[in-house]
Amino acid sequence: MRDITLGQFVAGDSFIHKLDPRTKIAMMILYIVMVFLVKEIWFLAIPFAYLVLELVLSKISLRYIVNSLKPIRFLLILMFILNLFFTKGEHVWLDLRFWKLTGEAVLQSFFLSIRIVLLVAGASMLTLTTSPIALTDGLEKLLSPLKFLHFPVHELAMMMTIALRFVPTLIDESEKIRNAQMSRGADFESGNIFKRVKSMIPILIPLFVSSFRKADDLAIAMESRCYHGGDGRTRMHQLKFRKEDVFAILVTLLFVASLIVILVLFK
Amino acid sequence: MIRFDHVTYQYEKAFSPALSDINLEIREGEFVAVVGHNGSGKSTLAKHVNGLLLPTEGTVTVCGMPTSNEDDILKIRQKVGIAFQNPDNQLVTTVVEEDVAFGPENLGIVPEEIRTRVDEALASVGMTAYASTAVHHLSGGQKQRIAIAGILALKPQILVLDEASAMLDPSGRADLLKTVEALHKDGMTVLMVTQYMEETTGCDRVVVMKGGKIILDGTPAEVFKHTDLLKESNLVPPETVLLRDSLRSMGYALSDQVLTAEQLAEELCPLLSTI
Questions:
Q1: Do B107 and A162 touch (CB under 8 A)?
Q2: pTM over 0.95
Q3: What DSSP state is assigned to residue B134?
Q4: Which residues on chain B place their C-beta less than 8 Å from a C-beta of chain A?
Q5: pLDDT digits (tens, 9 = 90+) for A31-58
Q6: How many Å apart are CA B193 and CA B51, to the nearest integer?
Q7: Domain map of chain A by residue range?
Q8: Where are the domains of chain B?
Q9: ipTM exceeding 0.90?
Q10: What CATH number belongs to B2-237?
Q11: 8 Å CB contact of A165 and B88
Q12: What does the pLDDT look like over A138-175, one tens digit per residue?
C-alpha cells in the first residue's frame, strides 16, 4: 500500500522503458488518434498491431494489461449489451418481435468494446513503463510553452512531485490515527454504509490538521533550501532525446500514415 | 560569522517576547550547542539565523549581511543550512538523490555540477548506497542524514540543526551526532539546538537559554559547573556530570573537565588504588 506512489509502474530496462517520457507521451497521443480515426472494426487491427509491438518491446507481462482492464469490465459489458439493443440494422439474425438482433448491432458492439479496450490498454502502456516522477518531468517539459500564457506549469509539476512524495507519509499517518482512535474505542467496522462513512470523520479531521502542519513545515524547509519558484531553476536529471526516441516516433508516425492511407483507399 | 545584536523577537499575540535582547556571536569553525527547555526561545533563535524570522528589534548579520535585507536572503540561505525537527516534513521529492539535488537546482547550477555535489553530499553523510531509494523506505535517522545531505549540496558554511534529533530513536540520534561531528572536523561551523544535554559534551561551546534570554555561555566544562542553575531551568545535565557531582560531594577530587563516561573512568581509575 505504501508503494502506491509507483502507481502501476513496473520497473525494467527494455527499449520502451528507456525512452524519454516525452516520447512515450507523444506515442500514446498518436496511438489514441489512430484508435479514434478508425470507424470500422477490421481496421482496428493496425492500432492493435502497434500495441502488440509495444508490449513485446517493453517485455511487460500481458497479465499487467489484463489487470488494468479489470476496473472497466462492468462498463464494457454494459456498453456491449446497450449497443446490441439500440443499434439499428438490416441483417436480422434473430427476431424476438419486441427486439431484433441484427448483424450490424453485433459488429457495432464488438467494435466499441474493442476500441475501449485498446484505449485503456494503450494508456496503461504509458503508466506501466514510465515512473510517475519521469511522467511529471515529461509533462512539465511538454507543457512548458504554456508558460507564455501564464499557465503555472512549474507550480503544477511541483505540486505533483510533492503529492507523490507525501502519499505514503499520509497513508502511514492515517493508519496511526486510526489505531489511536480505535484504542479510544472508536468503531470503524460495524453498521451500515452511512454509519461507516460517518465514522471516518475522526480520522479525516486529524489527518487534515496534520497535513496543514506538514505543509507549513515543508514550506519552511523548502524556503531554507533557497526555493524561490521555477525561475532560474535547473534540473539534475536532464531529459534527453536520443536516436532511439527519434526512431520510436518515426515508427509511430509510419503506423499513423499507413492507417490513413488504408482508410482512404478502402473508403 | 553570525552576529546577534540586541535581538528581540515577539510573536504576534504573545504576551512576552520569545527572544529578548540577545547578543551572541558565532565564530568560524565553532561547534556551538544551544540548549533550553520548551519555550526557552532556542528554536526561534535558530530560525533567525537564515532570515526565516526577522528580529522585531536589533539585527542579525550573517557573514556581514543583515538578514533584514531581502536582496541578500538567497545568499544567506545558501551560506546557512538548517535541518529541522520532523524528518518526514522536510524532504521534497520521492527519490533520495533528487531530494538532495533540490537545493542546487534552486540555485540554477548546471546539471553536471549538481551531479557531483549530490554524490559528494551523499558520501559525506554515508548514504551513497541509498541514492535511488524512495525516501519513505528510510528510517528517521537516515531521513535526517538525507536532509543534511540536501543542505550540504548547497555548500553552506554554517550548519544549523533545529532539534534535528528530537524525533529520532537513540541509535538514529547517535548516528546523526556522529555525522555532524565528522562534518565539524572538516571545518563546518555548526549551531546545534537541542534539549538533550548529553549531546553537548563534545561541543566547543554551550549556550543555555531560559525565557528568551541567554543565561549561560561557555565551554561545556564551564557550563556544567552550574548544575543547580541548569536544574532550575528544567534542564537535566548528563548522567555522567550528575555522577561526577555526587562523587564530589562525597569527597572525591574530580576535576571540572570530567564530562563523559570515558573521562570519568580515566579520573576514577587512579582513585581506585587509594581505596
A1: no
A2: no
A3: B
A4: 47, 50, 52, 74, 77-78, 81-82, 84, 86, 88-95, 97-98, 101-111, 114-115, 118, 134-136, 147, 150-151, 154
A5: 999 999 998 889 999 999 999 999 999 9
A6: 16
A7: 7-143+239-265, 152-224
A8: 2-237
A9: no
A10: 3.40.50.300
A11: no
A12: 998 999 899 889 889 999 999 988 988 898 889 889 99
